[in-house]
Amino acid sequence: MVDRRAWVATLCGLACIVAACSAPEDHPESAPTPAPGAAGIGDDYYPEAGNGGYDVDRYELDIRYDPDGGHLTGDTTVVARASHDLSRFNLDLRGFTITSVEVDGKPAEFTREGASELVITPSAPVDRGSEFRTRVRYEGEPVVADRGQLGGNGWYHTPSGGAYVFGEPESASFWYPVNEHPRDKAAFRLSASVPEGWTAVSVGETGEATTKDGWTTTTWTEDTPVASYLTMFAVDRFEVETSSLADGTPVRNAFAPGADDARDEAARTAEIVEFLESRFGDYPASTAGGVYLATNPGFALETQGTPTYPIDPNPELLVHELAHQWYGNSVSVHSWADICLNECFASYTTWLWAEEKENADLDARYRTRIESMPDELWAQPLHDMGEGNEFGAVYEKGPVAVHALRLRLGDEAFGELLRRWPAEHANGNARWEDFEQFAEHVSGQDLDEFFRAWFRGDERPADEHLHPKPARG
Q1: Which of 61, 67, 72 is nearest to 196 (CA)?
Q2: Could you give the C-alpha distances from 438 to 386, 404, 427, 429, 457, in angstroms and in order?
Q3: What pLDDT, in 10s, does the model give residues 249-262?
Q4: Which domains does the chain have, with CATH numbers?
Q5: Where is the stretch described as Disordered (predicted)?
Q6: For the chain, which ranges sit under pLDDT 50?
């Protein structure tokens, strides 16, 4: 009879001897297979917006634009870092004829897909984590804006012969190759040449203009990461006035021919910034001022540091667009479903301005608005409102909801929330859910039902949320 325990012990001993004497097998890890970058960044509302596989560090643009012929020649370098091994990747560019593409100085293959996708295949894969430079040369007549949409994207022509390009949510791709989504913010440098006698304007700190062979070249530099839709370019016979804020921040106001009536409003820029700093903290942009058009594209836009205004802006419009420098520019949306983080708060800032400058009774204004608000506005959520509905209720229902939040929190906690949110999320992106959690953290209150009723709901809130009171400590 065999002793089972001894047999098992013998087998175990033999196994140990064999393992000790055998050479270990070498199993080298196989290198990751390079893969294409995604043709979209992952925004449910705009699935083709932006691109995946890399993160842009900065854009370096050199463009030449002739207003008389409407022709643009561009030479843009995109400096980015790969987030995985890339066999190919996309940039966004609309229109134009592409004359060449290089990646790290070597010619790259490229194709165009759909309305905006520029698909680039480098001569060798780009390694994960490596910085790479993509240079695109292009030329042609830019695509004219669709005036039928709010924030219409593309180029506009002016009666004086000039042109400008700006818009939301996608406008940068109408003049340079870009990863076009606010989730990928980047530094921005532009060198623009226009015929002598014309003036170009853009965003960022301006360098000295030089003129040679009938062309005037000016540079702009924005080192703070900026969402691409917050860049703009305009050419006209602008009159440019410069000054500075109390802290030395340069102020640049550019007036198109026929925009002289905006000078009084522009002169209040420092006053408005000072007011906004009292509510939100230090001014976050490297420049201030504005670009004042003599036409009406149907909207204004909070372009970085120097918003772009239609003809005859009022002070409230300046307050709104400059408030975006905190709410929208410094803290940008993660996805376009989060647009209330921009527009609801910038819209409410005009209420705060009226309270400060006109002694307006905001509680009375609030009561009037909730009693007169039509059912179709109550039916529109302020968060995740659905593709194409981003700008439906945020300007009218939005500030009413923010005032309800103020009533719910009380002035002290609400004021702290307004200051801390942009300070603690500066130069980044945020989701609406992040704001809800942050508001609960700052106030120490459970606000889930309140936010569901006012911001996520699609009906008139119950009375307890229409007439909220601060929670007792």
Answers
A1: 67
A2: 24, 17, 17, 14, 20
A3: 999 999 999 999 99
A4: 34-230 (2.60.40.1730), 238-325 (3.30.2010.30), 331-466 (1.10.390.10)
A5: 25-46
A6: 1-24
